[in-house]
Write a structure and sequence with these properties.
Immunoglobulin-like, binds CU-O-CU linkage, globular, 4 domains, mainly beta, 7-stranded mixed sheet, binds copper (II) ion, 4 helices, about 575 residues
Length: about 575
């Protein structure tokens, strides 16, 4: 008896000295329909006794978890008390482009931004983070990120754990690079410090019952290969955009930057034991950031990537220490969840092709930029115009040597296939990020509904924040082509265009204010070819444009009036 106790004591001491365990920080919650978010500079002790410069929301690091109900009209006041201009994006949520918080919707230091929208999303785990072009990595890495939990009736009817901080926990998993003064280095390929909810070496007391975890990979670049110690089974119940049709029994789940997964772990009968949530990164294929080799060819180098103990080896993410059951515990994994209905492939209006390519070939390509369709992000350019209510297949081919997590705003999509093969069950739910492996083609289907004709575009981009900041991002707008009369502004000038769509071979553009009339106009195809060009000699306030010879379709009209230039989409029927 004595011997056993002594042995236990030595064992405990050894364990403690190997991994000091810090209690997991659990972000506060805000709920209701009015949310106040103050973006602020701060200092935070990742390492006790040392102040690290950070950014946070309503605090020094990370932000509160926003709990929203489907159907609610929410009013969010974002107050930028940072010294930097930034934006806040509601990642995964279906909101209008003007409310989406992309790079065009900047909040200057000292300014506020007040998006208001109806929560249309399914119950699930979303998140918010800054999205200023070329500064996203800095603002996220310094600490601005928070969870959004959406609840709905469908989810409420299921016997799932949902008491925040008791049997339902958010886990924001991130890696960062600290310098010798313990300051965060951005950008960096040397992110060797792992943290969950800003807690290094975290531990969490959990009850001996079924517990729900909302996993977010909030890292700048790193992919995790989630598993449990001892290869125990866990159950995935949700993907990026809501619950799956049924719980999936898994031992591994890959999670790329930006992706979320909700999982259940059954701790029933395990009181007194500990379980580690791990990343089995040794099993990641080459060509994934987080594997031993970041390129598919092992001779390809990424500056700063080596040596790093996290690359290509298995490591702990968090320790769960299992305690007593709560009252009314959930003790069963449900047999089924919600109905998931992907868009049928036959319903697609078009297939759009995207290609990822490196800036330059050769062994050094991982240190360069990456392009989408040969293009790099330009704040002034709208790359795709998508008709409202279009159902589209996007076929994405990655011709580079590293996997890129592709993210699109506005929509949730369904993955059709990877290199022609249907995706694993864990990728058959609603998604807004998909890791496109090196030399792979991924196809997904989605529909662009509800929001159109906003003054700013939506984004699509690689969610490796280093790549995104380097321009691996394009924009798109959704256009409602059924409007009959169209008012549009270019600076102070107001134009009226009708009818749109054009049904009888001609249409009229009027300039309804100011002294300068229309001086010229041009018509372009969606691919950018100029189809018509006309200079109007007498600066007409009203011009009639004949398009009877032009095939039906969607076009851009560019109107010049003095200094004002404006571009508008027109549909010729
Ligand atoms: Cu999570 Cu466009 O971003
Ligand atoms: Cu990328």
């Amino acid at each position: 008896m004595k011997k056993t106790k002594l042995f236990t004591l030595i064992f405990l001491l050894a364990t403690v000295s190997l991994t000091a365990q810090n209690p997991l920080i659990i972000p506060d919650t805000l709920s209701g329909t009015e949310f106040n978010l103050n973006l602020q500079n701060g200092t935070f002790q990742f390492y006790s006794g040392t102040n690290t410069t950070t950014m946070g929301v309503n605090g020094d690091i990370l932000g509160p978890t926003l709990i929203m109900n489907q159907g609610d009209f929410v009013d969010i006041m974002v107050d930028n008390q940072l010294a930097d201009t930034t934006t806040i994006h509601w990642h995964g949520m279906h909101v209008s482009a003007a409310n989406d918080g992309g790079p065009h919707t900047i909040i200057l230091p000292g300014d506020t931004w007040n998006p208001k929208f109806t929560v249309m999303d399914k119950a699930g785990t979303y998140w918010y983070h800054p999205h200023l072009h070329m500064q996203t990595n800095k603002h996220v890495s310094l600490g601005i990120a928070g969870f959004i939990i959406v609840r709905d009736d469908e989810e409420a009817a299921l016997d799932l754990p949902r008491t925040y901080g008791v049997d339902d926990f958010p886990l924001a998993i991130q890696t960062k690079d600290f310098d010798d003064q313990k300051q965060i280095v951005v950008p960096s390929n040397s992110d060797d410090v792992l943290m969950v909810n800003a807690t290094i070496d975290p531990a969490l007391d959990v009850p001996a019952q079924v517990v729900r975890f909302r996993l977010l990979n909030g890292s700048s670049q790193r992919v995790f290969n989630i598993g449990l110690s001892g290869n125990s089974t866990f159950y995935q119940i949700g993907s990026d955009g809501g619950l799956l049709s049924e719980p999936l029994a898994l031992t591994r789940l890959q999670l790329a930057p930006g992706e979320r997964a909700e999982i259940l772990i059954d701790f029933d009968g395990m009181e007194g034991q500990s379980v580690q949530l791990m990343s089995y990164a040794a099993e990641l294929a080459d060509g994934i950031y987080g594997a031993k080799y970041p390129g598919i060819m092992q001779f390809m180098v990424l500056n700063g990537y080596d040596p790093n103990p996290l690359n290509g080896s298995n490591f702990d993410i968090i320790t769960f220490n299992i305690g007593a059951q709560t009252g009314n515990p959930v003790t069963n994994i449900p047999a089924s969840l919600v109905e998931v209905t992907p868009y049928p492939e036959e319903s697609a209006d078009i297939t759009r092709t995207l290609t990822f390519s490196p800036e330059f070939m050769g062994p050094d390509q991982l240190n360069g930029r990456f392009f989408i369709n040969g293009l790099t992000f330009d704040m002034e350019v709208i790359n795709f115009t998508i008709p409202l209510n279009n159902t589209e297949i996007w076929s994405i081919t990655n011709q580079s040597a590293i996997a890129h997590p592709f993210h699109i705003h506005d929509v949730q999509f369904f993955v059709l296939d990877r290199n022609g093969v249907p995706p694993p069950a864990s990728e058959q739910g609603r998604k807004d990020v998909i890791l496109v492996n090196a030399q792979e083609t991924v196809r997904f289907i989605t529909k662009f509904e509800d929001f159109a004709n906003d003054p700013v575009p939506y984004m699509m981009h690689c969610h490796m924040l280093v790549h995104e900041d380097d321009g691996m991002m394009l924009s798109f707008e959704v256009v409602d082509t059924t409007t009959g009369i169209d008012d549009f502004n270019a600076g102070d000038d107001v134009f009226v265009l009708f009818p749109n769509p054009i049904t009888d071979g001609s249409f009229t553009v009027e300039k309804s204010n100011g002294s300068t009339g229309i001086t010229s106009y041009e018509l372009y195809s969606l691919t950018g070819n100029r189809i018509l060009q006309k200079t109007v000699s007498d600066q007409n306030p009203e011009i009639k444009i004949n398009v009877s010879d032009i095939p039906s379709g969607l076009y851009f009209l560019k109107v010049y009036a003095g200094k004002a230039i404006h571009t508008r989409k027109v549909v010729i029927n």
